[in-house]
């Protein structure tokens, strides 16, 4: 069987990224131009600035991805591109670029769901991983517990009712003065703190055992900080970070393992930016070992936004015969499994 090469493009938020992926699992190049330093100045992603930066960088990033892979555009079998969910202006840059390349070269276009890309990041380094498996998706915009039934086929069994896990990290980080992006900073500071110092709530959603809610936890952290401030008490930021993180990780681990048991699934995978969190990985490892489940997670570079994961997802769509036309549009609120 001949090899399949995908040129993948990702521009849904604040990373302009391109990659060349062979047969869905072998990354020949993975170029990421991050705008984090720029958005840090404003304490979060500014959509208008993100779109402008994507336009400035996208051609260069694609050229680098091809040259690092040692390949020419005309050797690509498909162009995979994220078309949702995400910031509409940011998505449009990648989608317009991919359509232009497809139109000019005749190479087929495959639109990819960003979150399905995060899930597919697990295929890159785990050769033996194949569906079905349970996947906990924890990113800046999403928190989902899904059963990956087949490549590209998902059953959502849990979702957040308010903040996403990464969003909670970012908000708490801002409250304790760590700045944007908060997740990695809270992760680092937590290593110096006591996770049992403050008893923050582990929220359950009435009647929905696999759903999440993080806004109460975020409010509890803010209340704790205000209260201490009013009393003029010194705050141990490392203890706050570690205790907050323990509350998030406990809930994520408990619900994931409970679902794996109930649905009788023996493979558990993590996906999204928060999947690079050291406490979550450690907590999941212990819990999965105890329950006899096999745990998978991508390297940190494939957890946060990148185009290699989009190439992995695009490959399986391409193999199924999915092709998008030049009418492909950015869909900012695209649902998982929606085509
Ligand atoms: O998947 P991602 O790169 O973008 C979205 O699709 O949203 O996720 C970004 C999110 C941010 O909220 C960031 O704070 C969080 O992932 N994050 C982390 C860590 N690294 C990134 N959260 C906790 N611990 C980390 N080490
Ligand atoms: Zn993402």
Describe the sheet with the most strands: 5 strands, mixed
Q: What is bound: which ligands? A: 5'-O-[(R)-(carboxyoxy)(hydroxy)phosphoryl]adenosine, zinc ion
What share of residues is helical? 40-55%
Average the pLDDT over all residues and give the rounded result: 96
| pLDDT < 50 runs, ≥5 residues | none
The order of strands across the largest sheet is: 3-2-1-4-5
How many domains make up the 3D coordinates?
A: 2
- Strand residues, percent: 15-25%
Please identify the structural class as seen in this structure: alpha/beta
Indicate the radius of gyration in whole angstroms. 20 Å
Query: CATH first level of the largest domain: which class?
Result: Alpha Beta
The name of the CATH superfamily of the largest domain reads: ATPase, nucleotide binding domain
Quantity of strands, as a count: 10
Architecture blueprint of SSEs:
Blueprint: E1 5-10, E2 15-22, E3 26-34, H1 36-40, H2 47-69, E4 78-84, H3 88-105, E5 109-113, H4 114-125, E6 133-138, E7 143-150, E8 153-159, H5 165-175, H6 182-190, H7 215-230, H8 237-262, E9 267-271, H9 278-291, E10 294-296, H10 300-303, H11 308-319
Bound molecules: 5'-O-[(R)-(carboxyoxy)(hydroxy)phosphoryl]adenosine and zinc ion.
Describe this structure in words.
- This protein is globular.
- The protein folds into two domains: 5-120 and 303-319, ATPase, nucleotide binding domain (Nucleotidyltransferase, domain 5), CATH 3.30.420.40; 130-298, 2-Layer Sandwich (Nucleotidyltransferase, domain 5), CATH 3.30.420.40.
- The chain starts with a strand and ends in a 20-residue tail after the last helix.
- It is α/β, with parallel strands linked by helices and 339 residues long.
- The strands form two sheets. It has a five-stranded mixed β-sheet with strand order 3-2-1-4-5, with helices on both faces.
- The chain has eleven helices and ten strands.
- α5 packs antiparallel against α8.
């Amino acid at each position: 069987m001949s090899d399949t090469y995908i040129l993948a493009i990702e521009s849904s938020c604040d990373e302009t990224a391109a990659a060349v992926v062979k047969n869905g699992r072998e990354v020949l190049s993975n170029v990421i131009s991050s705008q984090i330093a720029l958005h840090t100045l404003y304490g979060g992603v500014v959509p208008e600035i993100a779109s402008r930066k994507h336009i400035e960088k996208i051609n260069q990033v694609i050229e680098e991805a091809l040259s690092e892979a040692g390949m020419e555009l005309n050797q690509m079998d498909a162009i995979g591109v994220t078309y949702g969910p995400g910031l509409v202006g940011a998505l449009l840059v990648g989608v317009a670029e991919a359509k232009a390349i497809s139109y000019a070269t005749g190479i087929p276009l495959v639109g990819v769901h960003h979150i399905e890309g995060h899930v597919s990041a697990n295929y890159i380094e785990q050769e033996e991983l194949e569906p079905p498996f349970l996947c906990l998706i924890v990113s800046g915009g999403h928190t989902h517990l899904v059963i990956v039934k087949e490549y590209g086929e998902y059953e959502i069994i849990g979702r957040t009712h308010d903040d996403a896990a990464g969003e909670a990290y970012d908000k708490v980080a801002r409250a304790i003065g760590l700045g944007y992006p908060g997740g990695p900073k809270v992760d680092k500071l937590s290593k110096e703190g006591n996770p049992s110092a403050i008893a923050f709530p582990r929220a359950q959603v009435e009647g929905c055992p696999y759903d999440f809610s993080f806004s109460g936890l975020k409010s509890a952290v803010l209340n704790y900080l205000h209260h201490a401030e009013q009393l003029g008490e010194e705050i141990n930021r490392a203890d706050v970070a570690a205790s907050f993180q323990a509350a998030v990780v406990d809930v994520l681990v408990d619900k994931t393992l409970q679902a794996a048991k109930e649905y009788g699934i023996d493979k558990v995978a993590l996906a999204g930016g928060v999947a690079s969190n050291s406490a979550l990985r450690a907590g999941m490892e212990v819990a999965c070992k105890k329950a006899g489940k096999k745990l998978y997670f991508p390297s940190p570079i494939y957890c946060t936004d990148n185009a290699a994961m989009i190439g992995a997802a695009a490959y399986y769509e391409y193999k199924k015969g999915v092709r998008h036309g030049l009418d492909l549009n950015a869909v900012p609120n695209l649902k998982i499994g929606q085509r």
